[in-house]
Amino acid sequence: MKHPEGRKSKTPSNDQATRKLLRQNMNMAKKALGEALASRTRAWLETLTREFSFSLKGGDLQIINSNWYVTHTGLLRLARRKRCCGIDVEAIDSLCDSGANRFVLKARVFPAKGSSGFVGYGDADPSNVSPLVHGAEMRVAETRAVNRALRKAYGIGICSVDEIGSVPTPLDKIPPQNANGNGNGSGPKVRDRLCQIIRQHKLDPELVKAYAVDFCGTKTLRDATREQVENFVQQLADWAERDRNALVCQLNSYLGQKEGAA
Question: Does residue 235 surpass a pLDDT of 60?
Answer without folding.
Answer: yes
